[in-house]
Amino acid sequence: MMKRLFLRIAKNSRFIRYYWWMPVSRKIRDKFNNPVIKFFLIALIFPVVLVKWISFFKKPKEENEFRYEYAVTAIAKNEAPYIKEWVEYHAGIGFEKFYIYNNNSTDNIYEVLEPYIQSGLVEYTDYPGRKRQCFSYNDSVEKHKHECRYMAVIDLDEFIVPFENGNISTAGNLIGNNGGLVIHWCCFGSSGYEKQPDGGVLDSYLYRAEDSFMHHIAIKTIFNPRKVICVSNPHFPCYYHGIVSVNENGNTVKGPIDYEVTYKKIRINHYFCKSQEEFRKKIDRGMGDVDGKRKWDKFIEYDKNEVYDDEILRFRKN
What we know:
By secondary structure, this protein is an alpha/beta fold. It is built from nine helices and 14 strands.
């Protein structure tokens, strides 16, 4: 019993650390130099942290009616060349709302998204700063958890492929009464391109790694946002006590890795590499959740092109 209690406390500490406590404590640290003032301010807000922690044990209230059945949240930095294709593809498989957080982009991403913003398909938020990925996800969960039944958090190089019926409703059917569905990566390589090709991502990059590729154990999650305390990891949320994610086979998954890799019902095509030219630009952009930049070794590691795979083209609405 004590072990289970400790694990609950450790799990919920992610909520305090990543969602609420970290940004508040950073503001105190950066604004005040006097350590005595810092101590008293932190002491004053500690009771609020305690109340937040206790909320972990409350059973979340479920609702019946939502403005959107399926929504997706993503953070973008200099993704203007790709975001139109990404939005239109996911709208075509049933996503009804896109919450896009722009993180210090220097390209024309707003102009590309403007027609979708005007139509109401996209909600656009400027979200500057470093390491803002999980913070943007948590902001979206808090703002929109009563607006959408299910929310996916994925990157702009990830495309969900629902094999079962060609629609994202596959995910809702598989989630059932659980917290969320984990969806495995299927990693696509450069298809031999050194320079960025003229066509879109889906038409250009048609070669991928074998199913046994080691990085296919990584997952992303589509979840019920009312059952989530916070998103402390870009791949996997922290749920209220007793709530879990499942994979497409209905088996419980407790973290951002699942060794039961199957692609019978749903997967995520992950276009991590693209061409050599595009990967160099990705290196320059840096990463969204940690400091530092990727190394060229990552391109070599992920650039696997053993299997020709154009399955996603069956689900694209032209």
